[in-house]
Amino acid sequence: MAQSPQHPRQPGPRAGLRLMHVHAHPDDESSKGAASTAKYVAEGVDVHVVTCTGGERGSILNPRMDRPDVLANITEIRRQEMERARDILGVRQDWLGFVDSGWPEGDPKPPLPEGCFALVPLEEATERLVRLIRDFRPHVVTTYDERGGYPHPDHIRCHEVSVAAFEAAGDPERFPDAGEPWQPLKLYYHHGWSWAKISSLHQAMLDHGLESPYADRLKDWEREPEWEERLTTRVPCGDYFGVRDQALLAHATQIDPDGFWFAIPREIQTSVWPTEDYELVVSHVESTTPEDDLFAGIELDRLAETDTRESA
Ligand SMILES: [Zn+2]
């Protein structure tokens, strides 16, 4: 497990709070929750991104970067892209050290490649994440929902590992060699692609006489009211959409500057949907939903009484 240099923490009104995002691949931290990450960093929160795999099997999705020399060095290039995004977002980042499972293409789908993240025994991956949780001691952890956000095998595995580690980290009987127990207080899932958000952005594009990138997606969208009601938490972060976009662009092999991610003008995003959205799944503190803050119910001054060890 490679330890990356730690990003110096910024002073701010919320210094002392710690947030951990667990993601499957380099670029996921920039495409999911990046603006709320930047907002919390600006407020002094210490944010730690854990990247489960190196993204070795990702395709090159930016035509400018689709070159043999890039493909031949994709592992190293994605590592450098991640370092740039880390610095833009102002987070610490660690690799969990597993190999990308790839997106299985074909019907029927081919078997997953030997040794990939999705095939590693759950306990092994969980122990590695428990170790990072006990070391960083986050108050809040985020991950994907049980469908993975989208059904990439690494995203589903990332969900399973995160949920298992969130439960195990505070239990002294689980993984006793992986550090002193630490129980994070809240667990969230990302909900970045709600029908309400996508249909609102779609309508705003049409109202401005612009072409919406979501027409086909919405035509086939089978709404699921129970799923939609799971969203509990909308974090206002429109002021940080620019930072999010810079972090996305740092992943130059994955993100086409002329493509999908930038199809909606930022002003429309900021006026129509200036939040990033989450589902509160587990809470060990009193908090009432709906919320607008991942740390709702977590009081810094009360933490100080129980949290005496200076954070690493
Ligand atoms: Zn991913």
TrEMBL record:
Keywords assigned: Hydrolase, Metal-binding, Zinc
Return the cofactor note field.
Answer: Binds 1 zinc ion per subunit.
Q: What is its EC number?
A: 3.5.1.115
Q: Which SUPFAM superfamilies match?
A: LmbE-like (SSF102588)
**Where along this sequence does the record place binding of Zn(2+)?**
H25, D28, H155
Describe the subunit structure: Monomer.
> According to its UniProt entry, what is the function of this protein?
A mycothiol (MSH, N-acetylcysteinyl-glucosaminyl-inositol) S-conjugate amidase, it recycles conjugated MSH to the N-acetyl cysteine conjugate (AcCys S-conjugate, a mercapturic acid) and the MSH precursor. Involved in MSH-dependent detoxification of a number of alkylating agents and antibiotics.
The UniProt entry, under HAMAP family, shows: Mca
Q: What's the name of the protein?
A: Mycothiol S-conjugate amidase
In its UniProt entry, the species of origin is given as Nocardioides marinquilinus
Lineage of the species this protein comes from = Bacteria, Bacillati, Actinomycetota, Actinomycetes, Propionibacteriales
Instruction: Name the gene for this chain.
Output: mca
